[in-house]
Every structure is written in structure tokens, then in C-alpha cells.
Design goal:
Length: about 325
């Protein structure tokens, strides 16, 4: 397995299992009460009408419109792609979404559906969502998605190895997946709901970034606890501090459970107040969501017309 990631100021900490463990366990401990209190406090910030309109459009542009179901069909993926390109057919000033996110076997269909639009195609890989497969199988999954045209790869870490303290194994897998991804940007999913502690989330964040992640992502959306303001705040602190130490900027993607405009705005406040304006762009921040877009569209029309739309205003994905 490869054991070298892109060079940066912290490259020496991945020289061995012991140096990596020493670094990760030497990170400052997380104060859970303080973290949750800060996340809750930032979530109470009020946003006025003009700023809200800007925030809604920004949030739409940050959505990875997602379908990851066993019942996905080419028709469903084409419809999702059409919606990503033109979220509101009645208002062509509505931004496109950042990407559509699908399984590897649907990448070619999605790619055709969004052709010429600027909307990216993201694909989950590495035996998503459990990640329980041999490395060669995971890498084949990634290569298949890239060969089909994926612009972005969303991989899952081996949570069992991480929780057992086998950090170098997790690191090496991320490095190998990064290499297999080629020019595609790599999002590394931690499944924060399975990591048990905030300290583990902080360690996973740094581990992913050390291994060359382009994004760190909270969740698969397939477990009980997914993105929360607190775990996203913690990851935003990590990318901010990582850039301060290395000069390398890494994106953040909360995924799962973000369904309303109010929720999305709270997360944008977290981004602005924690990482800063440099992350307020879909190149550096994404929402992994399926139903969120519908609420954003309805709230957008409410601001424009002064009234809520009927239930048939948006498509049901």
C-alpha cells in the first residue's frame, strides 16, 4: 500500500503508525458542552430578507442532489439531472445545483443528463455505505466510476479499522483511493454517527486531510445520526486549522438530515463564523441532500411572490 500523501508541512507525522497515532491523540481534546453550545448559539442568528435571498441561492448552488437507493432507475437519474440543471423551470434565474450524486452504475446516465451545464457528477464508491470490502474491490469501484465520467468520488472510511486504532490502514486506503480517483475530487466520508465521540471526529478529520482529501464529509445518510451543527462545526474548525498549518484548503460536506431552508441557513452561518468567507462557495462547501432543494425552492418563491406555492410546485424526487 502507498504511504505517502501530497507533501505538506505535516508530512512527517504519517511516517509510521506510531507517529500518526501520537499526532492524532495529541490533538486538543474537544469540550462537548462548549462545542454544542457554540453550535446552538450560531444557529440563533437572524438573517434579514436580502441576506436570506442571497443565502437561499447560495445554498441551492451548494446542493449535491442525491439519489442512493436500490430502486434507482435510469429514468429517475435523468429526472434528477434535469432538476439539478434547472431546479425551477418557472424561474431560470434559479442557480443550478453543485452536483448530482449517484451510484457508480448510474454515472454515465447522470453525466449525459447534465452535459454542458456545469453541474458535476459525484459518485459514491468504496463499497458504500458500509465500506466492508477488500481494498482492490474498493479501488475497482472507484476506477469504474471515474471511467464512466465521475467528476467527484465520495468514499467511506473503514470505521472498524479507525475505531480499532489502525489509523495508518485508514490513511493508506484514502491515499490509494485518491490516486485511483485521478482528476476527480475526493470527498472522504467519516460516518460521524458511528465514531462515538467528538475527539474521534476531530482525529478522523485530520487523518482524512493528511491523506489528501479534497473534502471531508460527515455521513452517508444511511445511519440514525448524520450531519449535526456540532459535528459540522468541529469539522469546519479542523479545515480552518489545517489550512493555517499547511496552506492547503479542504472542503466540508455535511450530509443527511438537512431538510429545510432554516437548517441550511444555520449551516451557512457556521461556515461564515468558523472557517470564514473563503469556504462560502460550492467549491469548498456542499450539502448532501435530496429533499432540501424542494424547501429552498419554495422559500425562494415565497420571497419573490409573498406567498407559498402549492404542493405541486416542486417535483417529488
Amino acid at each position: 500500500m502507498p504511504t505517502s500523501a501530497p507533501a505538506h508541512a505535516l508530512g512527517e507525522v504519517t511516517a509510521s503508525d506510531s507517529t500518526l497515532r501520537r499526532f492524532l491523540h495529541g490533538l486538543p481534546g474537544v469540550d462537548p458542552v462548549g462545542l454544542e453550545a457554540r453550535a446552538a448559539s450560531l444557529g440563533t442568528r437572524s438573517i434579514k430578507t436580502t441576506a436570506k435571498a442571497y443565502a437561499i441561492d447560495l445554498a441551492i448552488s451548494m446542493v449535491d442532489l442525491t439519489t442512493l437507493e436500490g430502486a434507482d432507475t435510469p429514468g429517475k437519474v435523468r429526472a434528477l439531472g434535469a432538476k439539478a440543471v434547472l431546479p425551477d423551470p418557472t424561474d431560470r434565474t434559479t442557480p443550478t445545483t453543485a452536483a448530482v450524486c449517484v451510484y457508480p452504475d448510474m454515472v454515465a446516465v447522470a453525466k449525459e443528463a447534465v452535459a454542458g451545464s456545469g453541474v458535476k457528477v459525484a459518485s459514491v464508491a468504496t463499497a458504500f455505505p458500509a465500506g466492508r470490502a477488500a481494498l482492490d474491490v474498493k479501488l475497482a469501484d472507484v476506477r469504474d466510476a471515474v471511467a464512466a465520467g465521475a467528476d467527484e468520488i465520495d468514499m467511506v472510511i473503514d470505521r472498524g479499522a479507525f475505531l480499532a486504532g489502525r489509523y495508518l490502514k485508514v490513511y493508506d486506503e484514502i491515499v490509494a483511493v485518491k490516486e485511483a480517483s485521478g482528476a476527480a475530487r475526493l470527498k472522504v466520508i467519516f460516518e460521524t454517527g458511528e465514531l462515538s465521540t467528538y475527539d474521534n471526529i476531530r482525529r478522523a478529520s485530520w487523518l482524512g486531510m493528511l491523506a489528501g482529501a479534497d473534502f471531508i464529509k460527515t455521513s452517508t445518510g444511511k445511519v440514525a445520526v448524520n450531519a449535526t451543527p456540532a459535528n459540522t462545526l468541529l469539522m469546519l474548525e479542523a479545515v480552518r486549522d489545517f489550512r493555517a498549518q499547511t496552506g492547503v484548503q479542504v472542503g466540508v460536506k455535511p450530509a443527511g438530515g438537512i431538510r429545510t431552508t432554516k437548517d441550511a441557513v444555520k449551516f451557512l452561518v457556521l461556515v461564515n463564523e468558523t472557517a470564514g468567507e473563503d469556504w462560502l462557495d460550492n467549491h469548498w462547501f456542499r450539502f448532501g441532500a435530496s429533499s432540501l432543494l424542494n424547501d429552498l425552492l419554495m422559500q425562494r418563491q415565497k420571497l419573490a411572490t409573498g406567498r407559498y406555492s402549492g404542493p405541486d410546485y416542486v417535483t417529488v424526487d
